[in-house]
Write a structure and sequence with these properties.
single chain; about 220 residues; alpha/beta; DNA polymerase, domain 1; elongated
């Protein structure tokens, strides 16, 4: 049966794919904005800001973005607060842990590649998933949609490119998969709607984590 499945390796995005992180990110962002008397951001605004790293997130959230003379102070405040609250309400989406276990039991190799700062990725992977390979944003390594970290994860797993699939929830993830030469499964349960995903060019959309596992294991072929 394992020889018939289409994929042996899966590279996962983290925020919006494996983990719901939006509320804790909002808490840290708004703490930084309050410190400087700026308008706080709604959860809906946050949904559109995430996906391309925390500096980009703050660039959207801070008035004037990186051009604001207080941006670096606000960014540092965000990082300090987020390190304390990053697991307050963060957790796996419903069905994710069961899907990951099903893939693991089937012998599928798995890794996390995220634009979240690497220290947080390591903490969250250790808290929830225990995957052997996890990469977050690191100095000197281009972040997604550059494929560098995806290639590093594949090398660490000794993955065969033709048997590897990428799973994510955003336009950044679709671009990342394309740049890495991989097919992409788009997660409908994440931070983007079906209409948004299709507008980005998504052609394979999983409605639930269980549906995602079925696609990876070839159960719906």
């Amino acid at each position: 049966m394992s020889q018939q499945r289409p994929y042996d390796t899966v590279i996962f995005d983290l925020d919006g794919t494996l983990l719901y992180t939006l509320t804790d990110l909002q808490t840290a962002v708004n703490a930084a904005l309050r410190r400087f008397g700026w308008q706080e951001r709604t959860l809906e605004e946050m949904r559109h800001f995430v996906g391309n790293g925390i500096r980009n997130l703050m660039d959207h959230a801070v008035p004037g973005g990186e051009g604001n003379p207080l941006f670096e102070e606000a960014f540092q405040t965000f990082r300090e607060v987020y390190s304390k609250v990053q697991t307050d309400t963060t957790g796996p989406y419903e069905g994710v842990l069961a899907a990951v276990k099903e893939l693991q039991d089937a012998g599928v190799k798995m890794a996390i590649v995220s634009n979240k700062v690497d220290s947080a990725v390591q903490d969250l992977n250790r808290d929830f998933f225990h995957m052997d390979v996890a990469f977050g944003e690191q100095e000197g390594v281009p972040r997604k949609p550059a494929p560098d970290s995806v290639f590093a994860a594949m090398n660490a797993l000794e993955a065969e490119p033709s048997r590897t699939v990428y799973v994510g929830d955003s336009d950044v993830d679709l671009k990342t998969a394309h740049n890495a030469g991989l097919p992409c499964i788009s997660a409908l349960w994440g931070f983007r709607t079906r209409e948004e995903l299709e507008s980005y060019g998504a052609t394979c959309i999983a409605e639930t984590p269980a549906h995602m596992a079925d696609i990876i294991l070839g159960k719906n072929l």
